[in-house]
Amino acid sequence: MTASSMSSQIPDAAAALQLQLNGEPVSLPAGSTLQDLLLARGLDPATHATAVNGSFVARDARGTHKLQQGDAVTCFQAIVGG
Description:
With 82 residues, the chain is an alpha+beta fold. The protein has two helices and five strands, in the order αββαβββ.
């Protein structure tokens, strides 16, 4: 089997990230950032807090925080008041 015939048999899974958002499976293009995920899901980045694999990700870091295969993202709307 040649290298070119092998590559045609490999599924295009490398082009997509499989991860979890609040426990639900999500698929995104490879190279996506946390900001990309929020926008794709229609979540307002200004009103939601985020964590990836249990670590808080600040709002200004979301655009550069590249998501990885299997990441577990937690996102929730912050509520302030008493």
